[in-house]
């Protein structure tokens, strides 16, 4: 296959970012972006770039994923994550896991296997048997003064070989029902990737994103329109059930776009020939002067 330009976008969740924490969100997104970008610039695979970028976001306590995950109604951390390879349509996911330092890497270990999605103790046992990093749940908890911390992290990447991948990772919603699983580990709801269409990763009110299968809807729209219009169409459809969302997209041409109806949505993106940039609001991105 001939070589194409690479592109990558990461997000830190659709939410209200508390005053004073915008820079931490921009910085965290840029660091994660750099981890993925280094792989793409070196000619590496989109799927590896997505896993590494999401691992960086899981490591950063600014974000509600992995280290820094919020607590459910039982006062416990329960994380969901998934990753999808647009070259093969392989997808791996874990849900309601309590002891995984990097849920995205355990999801990635499922890519080449069946089943697609493992939940709770079964996912943790799989992680233990396949080199996943297990931890004390208490190690994932950080104090969040003034920050309700509901959000999800995600990444979409296109590599030089034309392969597209997408990933999500989340601690879910603060105070949610024990055992609740949101959109993030569900293909077609919180993420999707297909080399012949593009890749998407979402954040927002999981129940609304599941009811509308918003990632699938976004992918269908991408077959017919540019990313910006597809994002607007998805947000318009979401209004049918209500709820907040933030969406990131890369299409087969390497066009990168994002949108949200939440107050803020931390994002960083870069493409071959365009520098890395970070934002907490799409309107601010629109004002930037792109080369
Ligand atoms: N979508 C996530 C969930 O419902 C949370 C979020 O993105 O804010 O679990």
Commentary on this structure:
With 291 residues, the chain is an alpha+beta fold. It has one domain: (Glycosyl)asparaginase (Glutamine Phosphoribosylpyrophosphate, subunit 1, domain 1, 4-Layer Sandwich), CATH 3.60.20. Helices cover 29% and strands 27% of the residues. The protein contains eight helices and twelve strands. The chain has helices at residues 22-41, 46-59, 103-109, 120-129, 206-211, 214-222, 227-238, 282-287; strands at residues 7-15, 79-85, 90-97, 117-119, 152-158, 164-170, 191-194, 198-204, 245-251, 256-260, 264-271, 274-279. The strands form two sheets. It has an eight-stranded mixed sheet. It has a four-stranded antiparallel sheet with strand order 7-8-9-10. The longest helix is centred in the N-terminal third of the chain and has 20 residues, at 22-41. The radius of gyration is 17 Å and the shape is globular. The chain starts with 6 loop residues before the first strand and ends with a helix. 56% of the residues are buried. The structure holds aspartic acid.
Which features does this protein show?
single chain, 291 residues, eight-stranded mixed beta sheet, four-stranded antiparallel beta sheet
